[in-house]
Amino acid sequence: MKAYGVWAGCVLLLITRPAGAQSNSAAYQAPADIAYRQATVISEGSRLSAEVFALKDKAGQALPTIVMCHGWGGVAERLRPDALVFARSGYFVVTFDYRGWSASEGRLLAAKPLVRGKPGEPVNAEVLEVREVVDPLDQTTDLQNVIHWVHGEKQCDQARIGLWGTSYSGGHVVYAAARDPRVKATVSQVPGMDSRFVLAGAGRKQTLDEATQRTRGEIGYPPPGAVTVGSLRGAPIRERLMNYAPVLDADRAQKCAMLFIIAGKEELFDNRDHGIKAHELAKGPKKLVTIPDITHYGVYAEARQQAQKLAIEWYDTHLKGDHPNNAANK
Hints:
It contains eight helices and 15 strands. The chain has helices at residues 80-88, 136-150, 169-177, 203-215, 238-241, 275-281, 304-319, 324-328, and strands at 9-12, 34-43, 46-55, 63-69, 92-96, 108-110, 124-129, 133-134, 156-166, 183-189, 227-229, 232-233, 235-236, 257-263, 286-291. It is globular. Residues 1-23 have low confidence and may be disordered.
């Protein structure tokens, strides 16, 4: 039996479902000093839901820019408190939902073999929409496409683009920076940066078996809402995790300034294999900060303001003014 994030119907290949569906984003009211709007980013044909923040009194100005992405199973609306802090510090801020999450469209799969007409004509098909799975290759592609999108925004200072990632996306931002020299600074907080754990021990058989079964049509994708890794929402597509280790990309972005913020009592993984290792490998401006006495999720609770302050200081140094790192990358 195939299990998918299911949305099936007889439709044209071009789907017209609005980007604002399945979200409470439309109800969000930003503070009076913040110019806020929703936007749509096209990533490999999927319409991603994005949110844009900036100070109203900065209207018309090109600003240093921060693209924010959430971790495993998170959604963009949870990043609003941080986005507001960054916007009030003088940044143009963009958050977004990965494909298949919240208001963003998911990857479409043909439920049955396609019946094609003439080349270039629309294809009528019954499709399945994959929702709420964790695929780091799709997620990092979405992130890279948001960078392309923001490059066309009038308020984006194209020479001063930074990325912010947390937990699983703490690795995503390093992966993207290693592949796009427009990224001048990254902040990775409590980063998990190596997914090859899916090949360890008994997990190796499960990973390879699932890959084989999916290619043979014996299994599909997990249903939305699946909880398969601890209490984390979103089932991993294990064959897409098996070679994903952005910790090894840290040395490729030699002109990107990288800040790593780690939890002193990290309980989900060994920091020495993730944030600490990435910091050691990084070749450009870099900094490693350990927040003592917090576990992984403490960075969203008691240490949130501290982490925000560290990030702003890093961005102010490397995205504002004429810092040598910034000037060298213009």
